């Protein structure tokens, strides 16, 4: 690829955004990857270290219902399920979900095709743990508020939200990805969603960059 040629994700994202379809580039990217003509840049053989470290430090009750947003081929979702969490994972790309099921044929994870911007109504306030890792930053800034609202709406009373994202000091204008500023991380907070902690942590790769790891909590429903 020459400097004049955009990466597959940027090429396909530009086409989708021109068609006013902010999530429309994921399926073509996974389809090209399945055909061997492109690669999915965020695919990994191991779960995200920031997720691994966090899950090993928290205590979750038995029967916790977990949701992994934008799961791709399922590496993070499988790690979440391995911790004893009843895990659902979704991606907008049917090819990605087929790939996850093929990669993990005996998985306990419930894999679904769904769009974060229009999640199934039955998921409203349905999960005790929601994992959002680098999905919001893969959406253009003009739909970011809607995506964040959708994520908040997935949380049951007493639930925890974990957000992992690349760091930007100023609002991103080109992408994907469109990394998040501290203000955008803070925007996950709502009257009924409390910010527990926000950390800046190295990415564990050769980039020399840091990522946000932010934890939020929705209080349990009041007795009465």
Task: Provide the descriptors you would attach to this structure in a database record.
224 residues; alpha/beta; Rossmann fold; 7-stranded mixed β-sheet
What does this entry look like structurally?
- α5 links the parallel β2 and β3.
- It contains 7 helices and 7 strands.
- The protein has a 7-stranded mixed sheet.
- The chain has one domain: Rossmann fold, CATH 3.40.50.
- It has 224 residues and is of the alpha/beta class.
Briefly characterize the structure.
With 224 residues, the chain is an alpha/beta fold. It has 7 helices and 7 strands; from the N terminus they run H-H-H-E-H-E-H-E-E-H-E-H-E-E.
- Please state roughly what percent of the residues sit in beta strands, choosing from under 5%, 5-15%, 15-25%, 25-35%, 35-45% or over 45%: 15-25%
CATH superfamily caption: Vaccinia Virus protein VP39
Rg computed from alpha carbons, rounded to a whole number of angstroms: 17 Å
Distance between the termini: 63 Å
Overall domain count: 1
For the secondary structure, the number of strands is 7
CATH architecture: 3-Layer(aba) Sandwich
Give the SSE map.
Layout: H1 8-18, H2 26-35, H3 49-55, E1 65-69, H4 75-82, E2 86-91, H5 94-103, E3 110-113, E4 127-133, H6 144-153, E5 155-166, H7 182-186, E6 194-202, E7 210-217
Helix pairs in contact: 2-5
């Amino acid at each position: 690829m020459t400097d004049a040629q955009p990466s597959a994700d940027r090429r396909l994202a530009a086409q989708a955004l021109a068609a006013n379809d902010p999530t429309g580039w994921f399926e073509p990217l996974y389809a090209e990857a399945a055909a061997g003509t492109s690669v999915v840049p965020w695919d990994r053989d191991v779960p995200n270290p920031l997720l691994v470290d966090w899950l090993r430090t928290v205590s979750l009750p038995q029967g916790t219902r977990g949701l992994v947003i934008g799961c791709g081929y399922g590496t993070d979702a499988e790690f979440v399920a391995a911790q004893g969490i009843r895990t659902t994972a979704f991606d907008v790309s049917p090819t990605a979900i087929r790939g996850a099921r093929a990669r993990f044929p005996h998985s306990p994870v419930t894999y679904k095709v769904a769009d974060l911007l229009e999640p199934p109504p039955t998921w409203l306030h349905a999960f005790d743990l929601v994992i959002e890792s680098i999905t919001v930053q893969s959406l253009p800034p003009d739909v970011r508020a809607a995506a964040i609202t959708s994520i908040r709406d997935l949380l049951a009373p007493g639930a925890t939200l974990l957000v992992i994202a690349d760091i930007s000091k100023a609002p991103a204008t080109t992408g994907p990805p469109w990394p998040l500023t501290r203000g955008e991380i803070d925007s996950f907070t709502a009257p009924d969603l409390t910010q527990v902690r926000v950390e800046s942590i190295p990415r564990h790769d050769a980039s020399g960059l840091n990522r946000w790891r932010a934890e939020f909590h929705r209080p349990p429903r009041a007795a009465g």
